[in-house]
């Protein structure tokens, strides 16, 4: 993976950007990406993320993690190996919960990179970090489901190869809180699906596109439900564990790339009578960046190991923690690298400005920091609340035993 990145992917970044700028469709696949995918697949560097069944390369989360970091050193890296979002999460959903028919129709073409997919969950009218707020309705009508609602930042929907939308909506608003939502498989060309606009991210237009999408009386067969009605929330939780590890390790790759660029820059530039690398503040930036990256990497590897050994649910606190820590660290290191580059850091002459935008945006995507911090705090406090409840129970038991003993002694004295 390291050799492939250095020999093929990193040198192709400028070609990729040029081909994308020259294309009539800003969302079309640049020819160089198709070439890179073909080479990666021939090398066996393909579907490395898939840790379920026999669908992928047979790696565990812990084994895949350092490979995700290497791919993350380039913005185009994960796609080269068919390991990019949102397809990775969608493929995991289909591998874990799809019917054989759903897997044959959607999963196999995704694994072969014959098609792309998108995931429609976030809505513009509500705080979608709380899935209970989702308003998009999925209504049963005979042998079909009818979808009405509006989603945005539906990443990937503008890719010409997008053929599948996995949508989260409400099938029963009156059901118990976490049984109201369901996931539905919607072919991209289904009538009633309208992309209203392509949303930028800090001014950048992403090749996959972030669609603002309207669903008006969109009809799909009932067999397109994923796992069953009311399973949407549980499926979303299952999808997010490995996905957050992928995000986090790619963020380590972002940070390593930024640190490399910063070190190269400060050794080449001089100011105030000497190399920038001799300035105390610059050395502190470099030292703190190295320390923070090493700490982050170990935390993510621990999380990956826990997912492999005790499962996603038991690793919930660590998975939430890495989502916060990874993007905070990556953004901080990128920010220092931008500062070290001066005017070049905010231009498009380096990848830093794009990394700055991505690392900031990802602190909102896939759940904002505050939601994950809430999870970590709740899990941590639960340990102490459980201990306090045990202490209280034991104290009450001791007081009860003391009271019973006193009653027995009083009866004995009276006798």
From TrEMBL:
Acyl-CoA dehydrogenase/oxidase N-terminal domain residues: 2-113
SUPFAM superfamilies, sorted: Acyl-CoA dehydrogenase C-terminal domain-like, Acyl-CoA dehydrogenase NM domain-like
Gene3D superfamilies given in the database record: Acyl-CoA dehydrogenase/oxidase, N-terminal domain, Butyryl-CoA Dehydrogenase, subunit A, domain 2, Butyryl-CoA Dehydrogenase, subunit A, domain 3
GO molecular function: acyl-CoA dehydrogenase activity; flavin adenine dinucleotide binding
Key words of the record: FAD, Flavoprotein, Oxidoreductase
Domain Acyl-CoA oxidase/dehydrogenase middle per the UniProt entry, residue ranges: 118-218
Swiss-Prot/TrEMBL GO biological process terms: fatty acid beta-oxidation using acyl-CoA dehydrogenase
Listed cofactors: FAD
Entry-linked InterPro entries: Acyl-CoA_dehydrogenase, Acyl-CoA_Oxase/DH_mid-dom, Acyl-CoA_Oxase/DH_mid-dom_sf, AcylCo_DH-like_C, AcylCo_DH/oxidase_C, AcylCoA_DH/ox_N, AcylCoA_DH/ox_N_sf, AcylCoA_DH/oxidase_NM_dom_sf
Domain Acyl-CoA dehydrogenase/oxidase C-terminal per the UniProt entry, residue ranges: 230-379
Short name of one Pfam family: Acyl-CoA_dh_M
GO cellular component assignments: cytoplasm
Family named by the database record: Belongs to the acyl-CoA dehydrogenase family.
Subunit structure: Homodimer.
Name used for this protein in its record: Acyl-CoA dehydrogenase domain-containing protein
């Amino acid at each position: 993976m390291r050799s492939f990145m250095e020999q093929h992917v990193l040198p192709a970044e400028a070609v990729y950007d040029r081909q994308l700028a020259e294309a009539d469709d800003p969302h079309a696949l640049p020819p160089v990406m198709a070439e890179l995918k073909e080479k990666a697949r021939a090398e066996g560097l393909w579907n490395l993320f898939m840790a379920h069944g026999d669908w992928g390369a047979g790696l565990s989360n812990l084994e895949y993690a350092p490979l995700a970091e290497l791919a993350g050193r380039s913005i185009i890296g994960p796609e080269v190996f068919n390991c990019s979002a949102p397809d990775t999460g969608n493929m995991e959903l289909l591998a874990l919960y799809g019917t054989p028919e759903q897997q044959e129709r959607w999963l196999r073409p995704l694994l072969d990179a014959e098609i792309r997919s998108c995931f429609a969950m976030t809505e513009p009218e509500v705080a979608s970090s709380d899935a209970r707020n989702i308003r998009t309705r999925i209504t049963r009508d005979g042998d079909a489901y009818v979808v009405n609602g509006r989603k945005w930042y539906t990443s990937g929907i503008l890719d010409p190869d997008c053929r599948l939308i996995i949508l989260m909506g409400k099938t029963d608003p009156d059901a118990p809180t976490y049984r109201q939502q369901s996931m539905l498989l919607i072919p991209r060309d289904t009538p009633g699906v309208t992309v209203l606009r392509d949303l930028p991210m800090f001014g950048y237009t992403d090749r996959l596109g972030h669609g603002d999408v309207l669903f008006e009386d969109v009809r799909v067969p009932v067999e397109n439900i994923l796992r069953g009605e009311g399973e949407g929330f549980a499926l979303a939780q299952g999808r997010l564990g490995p996905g957050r590890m992928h995000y986090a390790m790619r963020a380590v790759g972002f940070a390593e790339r930024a640190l490399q660029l910063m070190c190269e820059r400060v050794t080449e530039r001089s100011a105030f009578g000497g190399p920038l690398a001799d300035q105390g503040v610059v050395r502190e930036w470099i030292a703190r960046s190295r320390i923070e990256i090493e700490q982050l990497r170990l935390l993510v590897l621990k999380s990956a190991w826990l997912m492999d050994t005790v499962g996603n649910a038991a690793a919930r606190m660590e998975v939430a923690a890495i989502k916060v820590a990874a993007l905070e660290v990556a953004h901080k290191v990128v920010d220092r690298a931008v500062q070290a580059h001066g005017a070049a850091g905010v231009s498009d002459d380096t990848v830093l400005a794009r990394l700055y935008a991505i690392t900031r945006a990802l602190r909102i995507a896939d759940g904002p920091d505050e939601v994950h911090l809430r999870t970590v705090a709740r899990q941590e406090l639960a340990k102490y609340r459980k201990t306090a409840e045990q202490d209280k129970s034991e104290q009450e038991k001791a007081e009860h035993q003391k009271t019973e003993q006193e009653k027995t002694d009083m009866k004995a004295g009276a006798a």
